[in-house]
Amino acid sequence: MLQVTTLKIKKRSGSGRQRISGFRCEPGIADPGNRRRPSSNTRLVAILKMGNQLRRRIIKVGFIGLGNVGAKLAGTLLRNQVELVVHDLDADKVRPFVDAGAGDADSPLELVRQVDTLITCLPSPEISARVMEDEENGALNGFSAGKIWLEMSTTDTAEVRRLGSRVIELGGRAADCPVSGGCHRAETGNIAILAGCDRTTFDAVLPLLTVLGREILHTGELGSASTLKVCTNYLATANLVSVCEALTVSKAAGIDLATAYHGIRISSGNSFVHETEGQVILNGSRNINFTMDLVLKDVGLFQQIADRGGVELELSPLLLDIFRDGQARFGPREWSPNIIRRLEEATGLSITAEGFPDEIVDSEDEAGGAEVKLVAR
Questions:
Q1: pLDDT at residue 338 greater than cutoff 80
Q2: Would residue 342 be called left, alpha or beta, if left means φ above 0 and alpha means ψ between -120 and 50 degrees?
Q3: What's the CA gap between 377 and 368, in Å, rounded?
Q4: Pairing between strand 213-220 and 191-196?
Q5: How far apart are the C-alpha atoms of 91 and 98, rounded to whole Å?
Q6: Domain segments of the chain: what residues?
Q7: Is the separation of the CB atoms in 84 and 77 below 8 Å?
Q8: 228-347 belongs to which CATH class?
Q9: Mind listing the pLDDT tens digit for each residue in 83-126?
Q10: Are 83 and 66 in contact (CB under 8 A)?
Q11: Annotation: CATH topology of 2-222+362-376
Q12: If both were cysteines, with which of 196, 229, 269, 368 could 178 make a disulfide (CB 3.0 to 4.6 Å apart)?
């Protein structure tokens, strides 16, 4: 039997609720200078407890990729007084970080030369490869012994292992550390982090990961975290489609949609997706800051893993067909919850109701970073 235990590291308290833009994330702009800044007497307790260890091991952090999720993760580091250098092709995304005290670099190569740990958070495996391997300005050209690469993008398992092996050959360390739980939890430092790497590397980066997130799980070797991440995104997508169908059938059967929502919420059919995406569906905003092209990327990565393992699937190909159709009808940058429009158009029903928010809120204060350990009994 396995028992889950956690080692809690308390972080600073926040000051209450804040409205944010979504739960799954795509590139966007965040302002680290104005979002959930602590008062002058609230400093990260994790750094007070583990500060000497953190400053010995992680002197300076570089962050490449200031999209919506990346900006929130980088903002958490800056808010909690971790020395930070950032890079993004969009100068408008860099500017608020520089204004809030971060350094900036003109290229991945310039950035990695300045830091001990490089974090990348990028939209696709192809972009990650370009950032790392560009012949003139790629980050790998600046790697040397002792430097660490944390790949926090949702990416391909085989690709992160390939790039990670190149980092290791140069004397560095590598870990894939994708996050899960939503933009609202990334912004407040309450996100979950999956970490794939050897145990020695995990121990070295754990102090930094406990600043970035709440629950930190060591998943095994390099690449294992990326596999689990696309599995969770696949499950979220399957759940989204089923939520759309359940709400549409409820409306067709004459059930009040607010009643339907809360009936599902208190029942065995409830889920994280229902409580988040279900609400913005009913509001009509459908704005979860995650788009149909990104769904196709993530479910496609999941399908590739299944194909490599010789696992013949039934549901995954169907989900890909559904979202290919949605993308063809509504565009690749349409919000993913608007996949319900296929059902609305087919039935003539409007799946909306009063009293639901247009965006998701993390009502919990920034809390303790924790390693989740599985202990055999």
A1: yes
A2: alpha
A3: 25
A4: parallel
A5: 10
A6: 2-222+362-376, 228-347
A7: yes
A8: mainly alpha
A9: 999 999 999 999 999 999 999 999 999 999 999 999 999 999 99
A10: no
A11: Rossmann fold (3.40.50)
A12: 229
> 3-state class of 71 per DSSP?
helix
Q: Residue 116: name the closest of 205, 14, 212 by CA.
A: 205
**DSSP line for 259-280:** HHHHHHHTSTT--HHHHHHHHH
Which strand (E) or helix (H) includes residue 164?
helix 157-169
pLDDT at position 364 is: 85
At 79, the pLDDT band (50, 70, 90 cuts) reads very high
182, two tokens? 């939503």
- DSSP label of 153: S
The pair of three-digit structure tokens given for residue 223, joined into one six-digit string: 């690449």
Strands 61-64 and 117-120: parallel
pTM of the complete model: 0.84
Pairwise CA distance, residues 43 & 38, whole Å: 7
SS3 175: strand
| Positive/negative CA dihedral, 78, 58, 196, 209 | negative
- pLDDT tens digits for range 288-333: 888 999 999 999 999 999 999 999 999 999 999 999 999 999 999 9
Cα separation of 217 and 194, whole Å? 5
Residue 366 is given by DSSP the state P
pLDDT tens digits for 201-219?
999 999 999 999 999 999 9
